Amino acid sequence: MLSQRLTRVALVTGAAQGIGKAIALRLASDGLKIALNDIQSKGDQLEFIAEEIKKSYGSEVCVFPGDVSEERDVENMVETVSKSLGSLDVMVANAGISGSLTSILETSKYLSKEQWDDVLRVNSKGVFLCYKYAAKQMVAQGRSGGRIIGASSVAGKQGMTHTSAYTASKFAVRGITQVAALEFGQYGITVNAYAPGAIESSMCAFGPSFTPRDIPDVHETAQAANLSASPVGKAFSNSLPSFSTLGKTGDIAGLVSYLASQESGYITGQTISINGGMYFD
Ligand code: NAD
Q1: Using CA atoms, how far apart are residues 87 and 133, in angstroms rounded to an integer?
Q2: Does residue 55 carry a catalytic annotation?
Protein backbone atom coordinates (compact mmCIF):
# COMPACT_ATOMS: atom_id res chain seq x y z
CA MET A 1 0.00 0.00 0.00
CA LEU A 2 0.99 3.61 -0.51
CA SER A 3 2.86 4.94 2.49
CA GLN A 4 0.88 7.33 4.66
CA ARG A 5 3.96 9.56 4.80
CA LEU A 6 3.81 10.38 1.10
CA THR A 7 1.76 13.38 0.06
CA ARG A 8 -0.26 12.14 -2.88
CA VAL A 9 -0.59 14.15 -6.08
CA ALA A 10 -3.87 14.72 -7.94
CA LEU A 11 -4.27 16.06 -11.47
CA VAL A 12 -7.68 17.57 -12.28
CA THR A 13 -8.61 18.40 -15.87
CA GLY A 14 -11.12 21.11 -16.75
CA ALA A 15 -10.28 22.71 -13.39
CA ALA A 16 -10.70 26.39 -14.30
CA GLN A 17 -14.34 26.49 -13.22
CA GLY A 18 -17.39 24.52 -12.14
CA ILE A 19 -17.09 20.93 -10.97
CA GLY A 20 -13.36 20.66 -11.78
CA LYS A 21 -12.51 23.72 -9.69
CA ALA A 22 -14.56 22.39 -6.76
CA ILE A 23 -12.79 19.01 -7.00
CA ALA A 24 -9.36 20.67 -7.04
CA LEU A 25 -10.17 22.76 -3.95
CA ARG A 26 -11.60 19.74 -2.14
CA LEU A 27 -8.61 17.50 -2.87
CA ALA A 28 -6.29 20.30 -1.75
CA SER A 29 -8.24 20.54 1.52
CA ASP A 30 -7.83 16.75 1.84
CA GLY A 31 -4.06 17.36 1.84
CA LEU A 32 -3.09 16.35 -1.69
CA LYS A 33 -0.71 18.26 -3.96
CA ILE A 34 -2.69 19.55 -6.91
CA ALA A 35 -2.06 19.91 -10.64
CA LEU A 36 -4.59 22.02 -12.51
CA ASN A 37 -5.40 21.65 -16.20
CA ASP A 38 -7.75 23.42 -18.58
CA ILE A 39 -7.54 24.79 -22.12
CA GLN A 40 -4.84 27.39 -22.89
CA SER A 41 -7.27 30.32 -22.91
CA LYS A 42 -8.13 29.64 -19.27
CA GLY A 43 -4.52 29.81 -18.07
CA ASP A 44 -5.17 32.96 -16.01
CA GLN A 45 -8.14 31.36 -14.26
CA LEU A 46 -5.96 28.34 -13.41
CA GLU A 47 -3.23 30.60 -11.98
CA PHE A 48 -5.84 32.37 -9.86
CA ILE A 49 -7.13 29.06 -8.47
CA ALA A 50 -3.57 27.90 -7.85
CA GLU A 51 -2.99 31.01 -5.71
CA GLU A 52 -6.26 30.39 -3.85
CA ILE A 53 -5.18 26.80 -3.09
CA LYS A 54 -1.72 27.86 -1.90
CA LYS A 55 -3.17 30.54 0.37
CA SER A 56 -6.01 28.45 1.79
CA TYR A 57 -4.32 25.07 2.18
CA GLY A 58 -0.58 25.67 1.79
CA SER A 59 -0.53 22.90 -0.83
CA GLU A 60 2.00 22.53 -3.59
CA VAL A 61 0.26 23.33 -6.88
CA CYS A 62 1.23 23.36 -10.53
CA VAL A 63 -0.69 24.57 -13.56
CA PHE A 64 -0.60 22.79 -16.90
CA PRO A 65 -2.86 24.23 -19.62
CA GLY A 66 -3.49 21.86 -22.53
CA ASP A 67 -6.11 20.07 -24.57
CA VAL A 68 -7.11 16.69 -23.11
CA SER A 69 -8.06 15.43 -26.57
CA GLU A 70 -4.50 15.91 -27.87
CA GLU A 71 -2.34 12.89 -27.09
CA ARG A 72 0.90 14.88 -26.91
CA ASP A 73 -0.62 17.39 -24.47
CA VAL A 74 -1.82 14.64 -22.13
CA GLU A 75 1.48 12.75 -22.29
CA ASN A 76 3.48 15.94 -21.58
CA MET A 77 1.09 16.99 -18.86
CA VAL A 78 1.38 13.72 -16.96
CA GLU A 79 5.16 13.69 -17.33
CA THR A 80 5.59 17.32 -16.26
CA VAL A 81 3.21 17.04 -13.32
CA SER A 82 4.89 13.86 -12.08
CA LYS A 83 8.33 15.48 -12.31
CA SER A 84 7.25 18.78 -10.73
CA LEU A 85 5.22 17.34 -7.86
CA GLY A 86 7.00 14.01 -7.42
CA SER A 87 4.34 11.50 -8.59
CA LEU A 88 0.83 11.09 -9.92
CA ASP A 89 -1.56 9.24 -7.63
CA VAL A 90 -5.01 10.54 -8.55
CA MET A 91 -6.20 11.46 -12.06
CA VAL A 92 -9.55 13.22 -12.33
CA ALA A 93 -10.52 13.32 -16.02
CA ASN A 94 -13.21 15.94 -15.56
CA ALA A 95 -12.95 18.16 -18.67
CA GLY A 96 -16.00 18.04 -20.90
CA ILE A 97 -18.11 19.96 -23.39
CA SER A 98 -21.76 19.60 -24.27
CA GLY A 99 -21.96 20.86 -27.86
CA SER A 100 -25.12 22.43 -29.23
CA LEU A 101 -28.39 20.96 -28.11
CA THR A 102 -30.38 19.73 -31.06
CA SER A 103 -32.55 16.82 -32.12
CA ILE A 104 -30.96 14.13 -34.26
CA LEU A 105 -33.13 15.13 -37.22
CA GLU A 106 -31.82 18.68 -37.02
CA THR A 107 -28.15 17.95 -36.47
CA SER A 108 -27.23 18.87 -40.06
CA LYS A 109 -28.61 22.33 -39.38
CA TYR A 110 -27.50 23.00 -35.82
CA LEU A 111 -24.65 20.62 -34.98
CA SER A 112 -22.09 20.10 -37.74
CA LYS A 113 -20.31 16.76 -38.21
CA GLU A 114 -17.17 18.44 -36.89
CA GLN A 115 -18.96 19.70 -33.77
CA TRP A 116 -20.48 16.24 -33.17
CA ASP A 117 -16.98 14.76 -33.41
CA ASP A 118 -15.60 17.45 -31.07
CA VAL A 119 -17.91 16.32 -28.28
CA LEU A 120 -16.73 12.72 -28.65
CA ARG A 121 -13.11 13.87 -29.03
CA VAL A 122 -13.05 15.86 -25.79
CA ASN A 123 -15.43 13.83 -23.62
CA SER A 124 -14.52 10.27 -24.63
CA LYS A 125 -11.09 10.34 -26.26
CA GLY A 126 -9.96 12.93 -23.70
CA VAL A 127 -10.96 10.64 -20.84
CA PHE A 128 -9.33 7.65 -22.58
CA LEU A 129 -6.03 9.53 -22.97
CA CYS A 130 -6.06 10.73 -19.37
CA TYR A 131 -6.71 7.19 -18.15
CA LYS A 132 -3.97 5.78 -20.40
CA TYR A 133 -1.16 8.16 -19.44
CA ALA A 134 -2.13 8.29 -15.77
CA ALA A 135 -2.03 4.50 -15.58
CA LYS A 136 1.32 4.35 -17.40
CA GLN A 137 2.79 6.74 -14.85
CA MET A 138 1.21 4.95 -11.89
CA VAL A 139 2.48 1.56 -13.10
CA ALA A 140 5.98 3.04 -13.64
CA GLN A 141 5.94 4.40 -10.08
CA GLY A 142 5.57 0.80 -9.02
CA ARG A 143 3.30 1.27 -6.04
CA SER A 144 -0.27 0.34 -5.35
CA GLY A 145 -3.14 2.70 -4.54
CA GLY A 146 -3.58 4.71 -7.76
CA ARG A 147 -6.98 6.27 -8.30
CA ILE A 148 -8.37 7.15 -11.74
CA ILE A 149 -11.71 8.95 -11.91
CA GLY A 150 -13.67 10.20 -14.95
CA ALA A 151 -16.67 12.39 -15.65
CA SER A 152 -19.72 10.63 -17.03
CA SER A 153 -23.25 12.00 -16.57
CA VAL A 154 -26.83 11.00 -15.96
CA ALA A 155 -26.83 11.20 -19.77
CA GLY A 156 -24.35 8.33 -19.64
CA LYS A 157 -26.99 6.21 -17.94
CA GLN A 158 -30.09 7.12 -19.92
CA GLY A 159 -30.48 8.95 -23.23
CA MET A 160 -31.60 12.57 -23.00
CA THR A 161 -33.44 14.39 -25.76
CA HIS A 162 -31.39 16.84 -27.91
CA THR A 163 -28.06 15.48 -26.67
CA SER A 164 -27.08 12.68 -29.07
CA ALA A 165 -23.37 13.51 -29.11
CA TYR A 166 -23.15 14.28 -25.40
CA THR A 167 -25.11 11.17 -24.42
CA ALA A 168 -22.96 8.98 -26.70
CA SER A 169 -19.79 10.48 -25.24
CA LYS A 170 -20.87 9.91 -21.65
CA PHE A 171 -22.00 6.31 -22.28
CA ALA A 172 -18.50 5.80 -23.72
CA VAL A 173 -16.95 7.01 -20.45
CA ARG A 174 -18.78 4.24 -18.58
CA GLY A 175 -17.43 1.66 -21.02
CA ILE A 176 -13.85 2.92 -20.90
CA THR A 177 -14.05 3.04 -17.10
CA GLN A 178 -15.08 -0.63 -16.93
CA VAL A 179 -12.33 -1.74 -19.32
CA ALA A 180 -9.68 0.31 -17.51
CA ALA A 181 -10.80 -1.07 -14.13
CA LEU A 182 -10.35 -4.63 -15.42
CA GLU A 183 -6.96 -3.89 -16.98
CA PHE A 184 -5.41 -1.73 -14.24
CA GLY A 185 -6.68 -3.70 -11.23
CA GLN A 186 -3.58 -5.91 -11.28
CA TYR A 187 -1.51 -2.80 -10.50
CA GLY A 188 -3.64 -1.84 -7.51
CA ILE A 189 -5.27 1.02 -9.43
CA THR A 190 -9.02 1.58 -9.15
CA VAL A 191 -10.98 3.29 -11.93
CA ASN A 192 -14.39 4.85 -11.39
CA ALA A 193 -16.55 7.64 -12.81
CA TYR A 194 -19.13 10.07 -11.44
CA ALA A 195 -22.47 10.53 -13.19
CA PRO A 196 -23.94 13.87 -12.06
CA GLY A 197 -27.51 14.93 -12.69
CA ALA A 198 -28.19 18.67 -12.92
CA ILE A 199 -25.41 20.52 -11.13
CA GLU A 200 -25.25 24.31 -10.89
CA SER A 201 -22.43 25.30 -13.23
CA SER A 202 -22.01 27.20 -16.45
CA MET A 203 -22.66 24.01 -18.42
CA CYS A 204 -25.96 23.37 -16.71
CA ALA A 205 -26.95 27.02 -16.83
CA PHE A 206 -26.49 26.86 -20.57
CA GLY A 207 -23.32 28.89 -20.43
CA PRO A 208 -20.76 29.19 -23.21
CA SER A 209 -19.97 25.51 -23.52
CA PHE A 210 -23.62 24.52 -23.95
CA THR A 211 -24.14 26.78 -27.02
CA PRO A 212 -27.95 26.61 -26.97
CA ARG A 213 -28.05 29.65 -29.26
CA ASP A 214 -28.12 27.26 -32.21
CA ILE A 215 -31.57 26.04 -31.37
CA PRO A 216 -34.31 28.55 -32.20
CA ASP A 217 -36.63 27.84 -29.31
CA VAL A 218 -33.81 27.85 -26.79
CA HIS A 219 -32.35 31.04 -28.20
CA GLU A 220 -34.20 33.54 -26.01
CA THR A 221 -33.44 31.78 -22.80
CA ALA A 222 -29.73 31.36 -23.42
CA GLN A 223 -28.99 34.85 -22.15
CA ALA A 224 -31.00 34.26 -19.02
CA ALA A 225 -28.75 31.32 -18.18
CA ASN A 226 -31.82 29.82 -16.60
CA LEU A 227 -32.06 26.08 -16.69
CA SER A 228 -35.79 25.90 -16.13
CA ALA A 229 -36.66 28.34 -18.91
CA SER A 230 -35.70 26.30 -21.99
CA PRO A 231 -37.37 23.18 -23.42
CA VAL A 232 -34.36 20.96 -22.84
CA GLY A 233 -33.72 22.53 -19.46
CA LYS A 234 -37.34 22.01 -18.48
CA ALA A 235 -37.21 18.35 -19.47
CA PHE A 236 -34.00 18.05 -17.46
CA SER A 237 -35.19 19.78 -14.31
CA ASN A 238 -38.67 18.21 -14.53
CA SER A 239 -37.05 14.84 -14.15
CA LEU A 240 -35.95 15.84 -10.64
CA PRO A 241 -38.34 14.60 -7.94
CA SER A 242 -40.34 17.38 -6.23
CA PHE A 243 -38.23 17.27 -3.05
CA SER A 244 -35.00 17.79 -4.99
CA THR A 245 -33.09 20.78 -6.36
CA LEU A 246 -30.09 21.39 -8.59
CA GLY A 247 -26.94 19.93 -7.11
CA LYS A 248 -23.86 21.91 -6.11
CA THR A 249 -20.36 21.44 -7.48
CA GLY A 250 -19.29 20.61 -3.92
CA ASP A 251 -21.60 17.56 -3.97
CA ILE A 252 -19.54 16.08 -6.79
CA ALA A 253 -16.28 17.11 -5.12
CA GLY A 254 -17.32 15.21 -1.97
CA LEU A 255 -17.86 12.01 -3.96
CA VAL A 256 -14.55 12.44 -5.78
CA SER A 257 -12.80 13.03 -2.46
CA TYR A 258 -14.00 9.62 -1.28
CA LEU A 259 -13.17 7.86 -4.56
CA ALA A 260 -9.69 9.39 -4.44
CA SER A 261 -9.11 8.24 -0.87
CA GLN A 262 -7.38 5.03 0.12
CA GLU A 263 -10.60 3.91 1.87
CA SER A 264 -12.38 3.45 -1.47
CA GLY A 265 -10.10 0.61 -2.61
CA TYR A 266 -12.91 -1.97 -2.93
CA ILE A 267 -14.83 0.15 -5.47
CA THR A 268 -13.77 -0.16 -9.09
CA GLY A 269 -15.33 -0.08 -12.56
CA GLN A 270 -18.34 1.85 -11.24
CA THR A 271 -20.03 4.92 -12.67
CA ILE A 272 -21.67 6.36 -9.61
CA SER A 273 -24.94 8.27 -9.96
CA ILE A 274 -25.12 11.53 -8.01
CA ASN A 275 -28.30 13.23 -9.10
CA GLY A 276 -30.69 14.09 -6.26
CA GLY A 277 -33.02 11.24 -7.22
CA MET A 278 -33.37 12.23 -10.89
CA TYR A 279 -32.51 8.75 -12.12
CA PHE A 280 -32.19 5.41 -10.33
CA ASP A 281 -29.74 2.76 -11.61
P1 NAD B 1 -17.97 23.54 -17.22
O2 NAD B 1 -18.29 23.83 -18.63
O3 NAD B 1 -18.28 24.53 -16.18
O4 NAD B 1 -16.40 23.15 -17.08
C5 NAD B 1 -15.76 22.27 -17.97
C6 NAD B 1 -14.31 22.70 -18.10
O7 NAD B 1 -13.67 21.80 -19.02
C8 NAD B 1 -14.18 24.11 -18.69
O9 NAD B 1 -13.38 24.92 -17.86
C10 NAD B 1 -13.56 23.86 -20.04
O11 NAD B 1 -12.72 24.93 -20.48
C12 NAD B 1 -12.78 22.59 -19.81
N13 NAD B 1 -12.46 21.94 -21.08
C14 NAD B 1 -13.27 21.82 -22.17
N15 NAD B 1 -12.61 21.22 -23.17
C16 NAD B 1 -11.36 20.95 -22.71
C17 NAD B 1 -10.22 20.35 -23.29
N18 NAD B 1 -10.24 19.90 -24.56
N19 NAD B 1 -9.10 20.21 -22.54
C20 NAD B 1 -9.06 20.67 -21.26
N21 NAD B 1 -10.14 21.28 -20.66
C22 NAD B 1 -11.26 21.40 -21.38
O23 NAD B 1 -18.68 22.15 -16.89
P24 NAD B 1 -18.99 21.44 -15.48
O25 NAD B 1 -20.43 21.56 -15.24
O26 NAD B 1 -18.03 21.87 -14.45
O27 NAD B 1 -18.74 19.92 -15.91
C28 NAD B 1 -17.57 19.19 -15.55
C29 NAD B 1 -17.75 17.75 -16.05
O30 NAD B 1 -18.92 17.17 -15.46
C31 NAD B 1 -17.95 17.67 -17.56
O32 NAD B 1 -17.30 16.52 -18.08
C33 NAD B 1 -19.45 17.54 -17.70
O34 NAD B 1 -19.82 16.90 -18.90
C35 NAD B 1 -19.79 16.71 -16.48
N36 NAD B 1 -21.20 16.87 -16.07
C37 NAD B 1 -21.69 18.08 -15.67
C38 NAD B 1 -23.02 18.17 -15.28
C39 NAD B 1 -23.64 19.46 -14.81
O40 NAD B 1 -24.84 19.46 -14.54
N41 NAD B 1 -22.92 20.55 -14.70
C42 NAD B 1 -23.84 17.05 -15.32
C43 NAD B 1 -23.31 15.85 -15.74
C44 NAD B 1 -21.97 15.75 -16.10
Answers
A1: 13
A2: no
